[in-house]
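Hey,

The postdoc asked me to send both predictions to you directly instead of through the lab channel. I've kept everything plain text so nothing gets mangled by the mail client. Protein one:
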Amino acid sequence: MAETYPWQAALWQQLAGRTQHAHAYLLHGAKGIGKRALAERLMALLLCQRPEGLNACGQCKSCLLLAAGSHPDNYVLEPEEADKAIKVDQVRDLVSFVVQTAQLGGRKVVLIEPAESMNINAANALLKSLEEPSGNTVLLLVSHQPSRLLPTIKSRCVQQACPLPGTAQSLEWLATALPDCDEAERAELLTLAAGSPLAAVTLQAQGVREQRALVVDGVKKLLKQQQSASQLAEAWNAIPLLLLFDWFCDWSNLILRYQLTQDEEGLGLGDMRKVVQYLAQKSAQDKVLSIQDWILVQRQKVLAKANLNRVLLLEALLVSWATLPGQR
């Protein structure tokens, strides 16, 4: 049976305890906090023929078919390839499913994740099913970036924000999930994952701490003119572009924060504190703001899966970063 996470207990009580269910829910929140697990548990409950309180029984025909991945009244819509769009043809297939009668005589349940990956035509094709789903159909949309969804999609769903757990609760959960890491490593991973514990586990599996060490070392060499922007752009070939833009965005924020507050406690993770402080002292604020604006625009393009020339983009970022000091 689908499990949820400790920080979702109150939300689960609220969702599962409804006497009448909406025809569409939008579960939204940061990536890596367990929204998919929550949606799958709700899906199991909505399809179950003999629910036990707020949980699916796990034993009825419906539960067994769902566990086997062959439930005829369940439909999961995802991009055909990771990080690609959900296309209009996929949504048309889904719409055909929605208009059919439930084969087991209960509800039909649809899970769409991530909902923001539907392109504009796909999103428009879904609208009619969201407005008036046929029969007893519930659509569960999971979104990491609800701002990218059409307002018409959002307005047709019951919107449910999913909570980011507190630091103490996340670290307690990570102690079990990552027993081979020490406390400091888990805290660092959680910071790199912007507080999302499941994202911290994913980052650890991807070797994020080694990737970060490589990038930090590269930035230091760039500022000392020991390595060029083009050399680093090539050397960072295996590091996800979004991760790089997240870090540079974070560092530009920390530089601005220090320029305004002179607060040495607010310099971020230890690996870049001295560099952030140095750049804050040596750089003109308007130059930092201008670089930050540029980073945010490029980051949005990366998020929108734009077709970007990775090496040229990184070179442009690093050239502007290298010219920061001495511009006061």
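Protein two:
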Amino acid sequence: MNIGDKAPEVLGKDENGKDIRLSDYKGRRLVLYFYPKDNTSGCTAEACSLRDRYEELQASGYEVVGVSKDSAASHQKFKEKHALPFPLIADVDKTLIEAMGVWGEKMMCGKKSMGTIRTTFIIGEDGTIEQIYAGKQVKTKEHATQILGK
């Protein structure tokens, strides 16, 4: 997916099995962020950054949805442990991850493997992608600040 592309309508099911659709956020900008794994240091820092400034993000017209290939049960524990106020899509079959083009080769500790590339899409009120933060562009500890531009 690239800037100007239309995001998919069906995003997936959240940690409670509820369908999440792009149209659920009509009239708002959506921060759709993809992360590798629940309860890892970088992913926790990113989620907590978005949590800590969630009200400010909402006041600026944004909603937040996280996505990883972890199970709904894993997401529930992650949300509870860190008091995350936004939904987490359990994309266990990687449907959305692959549709958005964020599954790919990664290098970790000198070893290549396939996985989710940390990526955030800012989707406009009309459903088109306005901005993309990918890989090392994502500053996990201050990701909300990046999005807000402050």
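Summary for protein two, as requested: The chain has a mean pLDDT of 94.

Thanks,
C.
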